[in-house]
Each structure stands twice: as C-alpha cells, then as structure tokens.
UniProtKB/TrEMBL annotation:
Listed name of the protein: HAD-IIB family hydrolase
Claim: Cytoplasm is one of the keywords in the record: no
InterPro entries named in the record: HAD-like_sf, HAD-SF_hydro_IIB, HAD_sf
Hydrolase keyword on record: yes
Residues annotated as transmembrane: none
PANTHER family reported for this sequence: PHOSPHATASE YKRA-RELATED (PTHR10000:SF25), PHOSPHOSERINE PHOSPHATASE (PTHR10000)
Keywords for the protein's UniProt record, in alphabetical order: Hydrolase
Amino acid sequence: MTNFKLAFFDIDGTLAEHSDPKNQTTMLQRVPESTKLAIKNLKSVGIEPIIATGRNHGMIRELLDALKIDSFIANNGRYVVFQNKKVSHDTFDHEQVKEIVEYFDHRKIDYCFETDDHLFINRNSKFLDDGSMGLERIGEGEIPSEVIQMIVRSEKSFEIPIPKIQAVKVAPRVYDITMENSNKSVGVNKILTAMNIDANESLAFGDEENDIEMFNAVGYGVSMGNGIDEIKKLSDYVTSDVSDNGIWNACKYLNLF
C-alpha cells in the first residue's frame, strides 16, 4: 500500500488503446478488462481515480459511467470536475474562434469544434470521426457558442501564428487547438488546491506530449510502454503497453492495492 490519494489517468494510449478512424470502436471497447479491474481496486483502497484527457465531457461520459469515476479533467485542463462538482470551465471568445477558423479554411484543413459536451463540424467538412466522437453537423460557416478548443488531424506537428493559441499533440496525427498555457497540469493543480492535497500524494499515468505537464505536477509519473520517448524519460516508472495490461501491471508494481 502507498500514501497516494489521487491517481490521474490519460485515456488514449493509457486507459484505452488508441482510436483508428478506419476501424471505429467506442472508447470503452478499447479499455482492457485488467484496467477496469485496476480502477475498481484503486477505489476500494481509497485512491480517487481521475480522468485527465484532451477530450471533452461528452466524449468520455460513457467511460466515466462504466468505470464509476466522478472526477475528471477534460479539454486539456479547461473543464474540471471533482466528485461531480464543477471546478472550472474556460472557453474561447468568439473572435478567437473566428480567427482560427479563417486560418484553417485558408489552408483547406478540416477541423472540429469542441464544447463541454458536444463536437460540431460544418456541413461540408470532411473531418473524420474515430467512432467515439459523435460528431454533429451544423450549417456551413456556423460557429457554435462556448467553444473550449478545436481538433485537427495532421501527419506533421505545426504551430499556429495566432497570439495566445497553440496546437497540442494529443495522439498520433491528432492535435488540439487551445489557449496557450492550457494543459492537464492546470486541472491537476486546481484539484490539488481545492482538496488541500500535496502533489506528492498524487500520481499520473500517460503516454503522449500532452501528459508532460501533468507528470511535472504530480509526485510520481508512470509512462505506458507504448508512450513517446520524451514521456518515458520524464517518468519514474515505465510499465508495459496499454494492450499488455499496462495499468494493472503498474498498480501491482507500486503496491497500490
């Protein structure tokens, strides 16, 4: 047993295998049975599991319900809930979204609008659903209200020449377009502060670029075996791949239950 009180989990590549637009499956279908059991066991010993993801609440609701998790950091730290109570909810202003849209339209890059519970694409968009997104089509040129971030697919990393806006790699060929300094550590710190818990009493599991700041905000970081080299170097322990019982194996190695 350990003194950890909180365990933060990335989803794609960590709790669940990565999605594939060519082979559509739900997020829950990609979660190994051993991972589901690990989450249950953590709760039984008093460690609060918290989802920390770039995805929005609407996309992870089924997963939260199935795993009986009521705390999460969504939209890369811009929407935070702890034990079913909202901690924060940040959005773009309308002019920022218009500028981002103009940038991508000029370059003929398809995108998706992300609010707290919905994902929208314009009528003629060719943006691909990965099977777990539930995209809703809206009028051509229409911009929804309260956009938290946007999503694009790209083979190569890139930067957006718009003040205070950044592109964050969240999965292979997937980037979230969000405000600068928006990342999972923002949500982690808000929860730690609200609950008066020391960072050393928390640990995090992740595999990608958008998990780096989260690892720096907690007391112990676990990289998945399928993680990128940068996150492995930063981690305190590297477990096996998500598809090879990585979460379960790490929990047993750390004597979490």
